[in-house]
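Narrative of accomplishments. A recurring question from our advisory board has been how the design workflow behaves on a single, concrete structure rather than in aggregate. To address it, we present the structure tokens for one chain from the evaluation set, followed by the sequence designed for it. No filtering or post-editing was applied between the two.
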């Protein structure tokens, strides 16, 4: 089988030796079940850690490892013509962001619960990070953050609408209840959407196209590509970007942010919020102190104890967050 040249993996700085790769592609994978053991074997042999989702509509994943490990994964992608042009977004971390490698089979690579849309074919137009500022500065453009409310809370683009969704599955309901109800005088000329890496906003554009909306755009490569590409002095991004690994958030240049995670409710926390009386590492914070029973908190404390013991032994506890 001929193989396309694999994607080049950057060299990590000495102070952040782990390389993180976030990637997705909407592509027809009718044999996605057969692809699973191939990728699982490649990743385990190479020492890649993280999660990859496979579905009939494509692939979605975030993994980490050494440069050699990720080069092996890129070679595996290059061997499959459907995945050869995948475009990972690379960043660096001071420690491994995951503790296991999982390749999972799903109905969707990002769950929206709308079986009639076609994210492989009918989607909005990509807008590069270099052209994004001009689009969202247009007063005739409605800018929509397609992420969940807890992500939006720590950073978003200037002037963006927050649908205040708790799950991506809530997005169609918000569209039907808000966008679809705008009268002709209120309807925007353009609709521009964005998310962390591009996958949710791309699928959101497929939904809007299917609902008859026009002039639909989405940020190519998502917030991560924008923060990597745009100089902070030219940026229209305000705050940090939440990421689904142990870094919790990243800033311009994809530097690790200053947030931690409450492992009781998964909310990102500032250093000031960690001083709140309700905060107990690994147990609770001001957002969830009243939502868990004492039995839950006892269970969380035991989990936290085992994590600390595993760390003392230099091991990764499999119950640790972000597995």
């Amino acid at each position: 089988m001929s193989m396309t040249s694999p994607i080049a993996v950057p060299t990590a700085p000495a102070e952040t030796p782990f390389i993180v790769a976030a990637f997705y592609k909407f592509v027809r994978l009718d044999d996605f079940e057969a692809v699973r053991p191939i990728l699982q074997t490649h990743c385990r042999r190479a020492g890649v850690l993280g999660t990859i989702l496979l579905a009939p509509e494509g692939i979605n994943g975030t993994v980490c490892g050494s440069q050699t490990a990720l080069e092996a994964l890129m070679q595996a992608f290059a061997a499959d013509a459907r995945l050869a042009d995948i475009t990972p977004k690379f960043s660096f971390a001071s420690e491994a962001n995951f503790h296991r490698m999982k390749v999972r089979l799903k109905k969707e690579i990002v769950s929206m619960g709308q079986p009639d849309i076609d994210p492989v074919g009918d989607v909005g137009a990509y807008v590069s990070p270099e052209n994004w500022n001009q689009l969202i500065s247009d007063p005739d453009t409605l800018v929509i953050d397609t992420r969940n409310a807890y992500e939006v809370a720590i950073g978003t683009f200037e002037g963006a609408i927050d649908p205040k969704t708790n799950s991506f599955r809530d997005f169609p309901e918000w569209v039907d209840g808000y966008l679809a109800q705008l009268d002709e005088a209120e309807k925007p000329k353009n609709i521009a959407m964005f998310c962390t890496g591009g996958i949710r906003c791309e699928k959101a554009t497929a939904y809007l196209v299917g609902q008859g909306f026009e002039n639909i755009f989405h940020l190519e490569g998502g917030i991560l590509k924008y923060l990597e590409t745009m100089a902070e002095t030219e940026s229209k991004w305000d705050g940090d970007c939440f990421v689904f690994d142990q870094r919790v958030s990243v800033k311009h240049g994809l530097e690790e942010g200053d947030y931690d995670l409450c492992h009781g409710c998964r909310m990102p926390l500032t250093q000031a919020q960690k001083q709140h009386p309700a905060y107990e590492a690994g147990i609770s914070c001001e957002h969830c102190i009243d939502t868990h029973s004492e039995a839950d908190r006892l269970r969380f404390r035991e989990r936290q104890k085992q994590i600390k013991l595993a760390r003392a032994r230099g091991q990764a506890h499999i119950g640790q967050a972000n597995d």
